[in-house]
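Readers of this paper often ask what the protein records in our data store actually look like. Nothing more is needed to write down the fold, since each code stands for a local backbone conformation. Below, we set out a record of this kind in full and without editing:
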Amino acid sequence: MKKRALIITGKYVQDHEYIYPYYRLQEAGFKVDVAIKNKEIVLGVNGTKVVPTKDTTNLRVSDYDLLIIPGGAKCMEYLRQEKTVIDFISKFAKAGKVIAAICHGSQMLISAKIVKGKKVSGYYSIRDDIENAGANYIDAPSVIDGKLVTSPHYKYLPQWMRDTLEFFK
């Protein structure tokens, strides 16, 4: 059976953090879905057109093996307001499945209340948010704690994705 990954994102996603995992996961043999509220076609902060395959409502944890949360400061400000997305992330974590977040994507983990007591990375400007949520901020290219893989910046995309994919070997 083919492994399935879900990328949850929205308008003003950080383009690199969406594009690289999208193609890297396909290369690794994953079927990749992209979920955006109302299945709306959006643009990344640098103008990349993002075409969703799913709406963020009615997502089922059982349909996926891996969840990817790309960053983008503006994207997260909008996405964090979506209760269905936050609930889905929380359920995904409770199911013991792999979640990989990069840059400001770690804010979604904070909103889902799944970082307390964990080692977490994220963009340096959200360090206080991560620590205030009860996590231990780690400034490293890729941080693994349980089935959570986080990274602070798109310049570390290769290491972050290598660490994420290690769970599926």
